[in-house]
Amino acid sequence: MQHFLEFAKDDRNWNHLASHTVNVETEHSTYKGRRIDIYVEILGEKPFVLAIENKPYAGDQENQVLDYLKYLDEKKRDFLLVYLSSGGQGPSEWSFPLHERGEWTENFTVMAYSEIGVDPIQSQFTENEKPGLQHEEENQEVKSLAKWLKVCKEKCEVDRLRWFLNDAEKFCTKTFGSSKSADDIEVRIVEEFLLEKENHKYLNVACAVNKAWPSVVNKVAERFFEQLTEKIRSKIPEKYPSRDDLKFKPSLTFDEDQKGFLYLYLHSTNWVDFKNGNFETENRYRIVFCNEKRNSPDRWYVGVEAPKERKSMEPDEENYFKKFKEGLRALEIPGVKVNDNWNPGYMYAEDDKQNWEQFLEKLLDESEQKNGEISDYYVKFFWKFADKAIGILDKIEKQP
Prior knowledge:
By secondary structure, this protein is α+β, with helices and mostly antiparallel strands. 40% of the residues lie in helices and 18% in strands. The protein contains ten helices and ten strands. It has helices at 2-8, 64-74, 125-128, 145-155, 159-195, 203-233, 235-239, 315-331, 360-369, 373-398; strands at 22-29, 35-42, 48-55, 78-85, 108-112, 246-254, 260-268, 286-291, 301-305, 345-348. α2 links the parallel β3 and β4. The longest helix has 37 residues, at 159-195. The termini are far apart.
């Protein structure tokens, strides 16, 4: 543990934590109902807490990191919050306001999964965006989980543990580094090919392909989304044959920058009508399957959205919101998260199903065949959550 702290934050002295008792907790609840992914309490004369927020893909919620820091600070003990992200990028200003960051220099740091996958622009957060810190980019050392695992593996004398560390290191590098590296290699191969004199004739073709690519991606996504919509819709009469109150609607649009907004809505006309709500679902709660930024790897999720922002709710509406969260927590569905704003509950798709652009060929094939592995996954993914959410919302309707 001391070595991890020294690796994550090498400008602090951690010698006083060398041989203390350690308690580890996952999904540690804060006073605002948020959950810190990993919470390590180091006991001793001066208790210390190491908190790790794991963000391989998922986006941040409003003031999420700031709330974590304030919560840890109120525990009246020293602490460090490590923000573990895919490419070393830090939290957004939505999660950690820029004007707040200078106060937490000693208690916050960012770590990448793999140094190979680091985005050299986004990964500047920890130094460049904290007021009062000086930074020389060329001297910046990339701190990554893979690099720490490698060091631990080299120092480990127990074979089984060393094998585990080796597998963990490979996973980090393969999942968050090698794919990006492979893309870079492919780009360099194309560059070299086009710059060779005998291949100059292909430059106009390459330019046309580059311009057409966003539109091609959108067309493939649109075709796949249409057949996926029908597969999900077809399950409604099968699962709920006697109900005509469940309404289903897909929505697919592309803005001028060719970014897609893909949604599926499911709601019941029996659920509470929140007056002055701002949804198309008649001011009612809705179950959604969506990706607001199709090419971003952190947005595919299924969840429940309230028709009003939490701060705009009347007392009885807020009570309804709380009841749904309590009901969802009680089910203990693996991977489900709760929120305090629009989404009382949601869950992300598996990491390797996040970015559709990585398997466009499969999407196109499944669109033509009206079936396939990816389609089946998303249908099961949607209904795994939706069935539970419908049950909770129906139950709340029957309560006084």
